[in-house]
Amino acid sequence: MAEQSAQEKTEEPTAKRLDEARNKGQVPRSRELTTVMVLIASAVALLFMGKNIIASMAQVMNKSFSFTRKELFDPMAMIHHFIYTIETIAFDLSMFLGVTVLAALAAPALIGGWNFSAQAMAPKGERMDPLKGLKRIFGPQGLIELAKALGKFILVGVISTAILWSIRDQLLTLGRQEVNVAMADLGYLTMWVFLAICASLILIALIDVPFQIWNHNRQLRMTKQEVKDEMKETDGNPEVKGRIRRMQVELSQQRMMQDIPSADVVITNPTHYAVALRYDQTKTGAPVVVAKGADFISQQIRLVAEHNDVPILSAPPLTRAVYYSTEIGDEIPSGLYIAVAQVLAFVFQLRRYHKTGGNKPNLNPDDLPIPDELRRD
């Protein structure tokens, strides 16, 4: 059961999986959306440009079916008529075709976007496989397409019947009008009926677009093992990454231990935390944390400090404040300047005392000034 569940495609496709599918040309597409947009664009274009197109075509037909005796024997007459036809209808037809082409190009951009990758545009032999073609026709996808076709047929039939029934009086009055007026009214009604029928197909598109997006994601779903394998390929093997992190920590600790002998003082908690501080009097910067650690690392810091005669001072509040507020290699925050300055002054005085004698310096670590926002209990 565990092996079977691991092989079930229950995981949503990752970004990498979606990108790979897109490069192969596998993106969500809705033919219904493209069809609806092209039909509606054509209907709207006809509604605004249909009069000019019809007038241009009527002008061309009138010119083409009326000619003189001289034109009958002129071998160039056909060429002249052809040029006249192109000049007369080219602009209106190009505007109409331009609108439909723009609609056909805009539809894919709304769902899935355009895809011009070489892999996507390369010919695929598997699409010419008749067996796979039959499988698509008689498979679930074929049944879905059949259901959509029946739905469109029923919807268009119902809408068309309702529209024709609503304008039946106008259609009946066309027979009592003059021919030119009747033809104009019939063309006007036809264009509005065509637009209404095309608009009714929006319902099919509104159902098909979410379905195509869902079906696209369903086809790209992954098993849990595939997700794990992809994470290994993308981020690297977790075991290798863990080993690298451990090595980085070990190298960092080695460098940190090597810097402890250069510290001026090591302040402790006294057992849980240890922080090594260094102050370069030749520079204008603040004291720097050269090493810090907790528990076992703090013990190692103290041992290295003792071995190299670095003073160790128990100052629990200050140690915790520096440990939590400053990273290795960074300067201490300004709020701890006075407290650290007192500690360093005590250490320097203590060195002088051991060399020259005199009054032994004294410091109460619990009275060091530490701001409330930097205190850690």
From TrEMBL:
The chain crosses the membrane at residues 33-51, 97-122, 143-167, 187-211. The keyword Cell membrane applies. Its main location: membrane. Keywords: Bacterial flagellum biogenesis, Bacterial flagellum protein export, Cell membrane, Cell projection, Cilium, Flagellum, Membrane, Protein transport, Transmembrane, Transmembrane helix, Transport. It is found in: Cell membrane. Pfam families: Bac_export_2. It comes from the Bacteria. Residues 1-26, 358-377 are annotated as: Disordered. GO terms for cellular component: plasma membrane. InterPro entries: FlhB, T3SS_substrate_exporter, T3SS_substrate_exporter_C. Residues 1-23 have a biased composition (Basic and acidic residues). It is a multi-pass membrane protein. SUPFAM superfamilies: EscU C-terminal domain-like. One of its GO terms (biological process) is protein secretion. Required for formation of the rod structure in the basal body of the flagellar apparatus. Together with FliI and FliH, may constitute the export apparatus of flagellin. Belongs to the type III secretion exporter family. This is Flagellar biosynthetic protein FlhB.
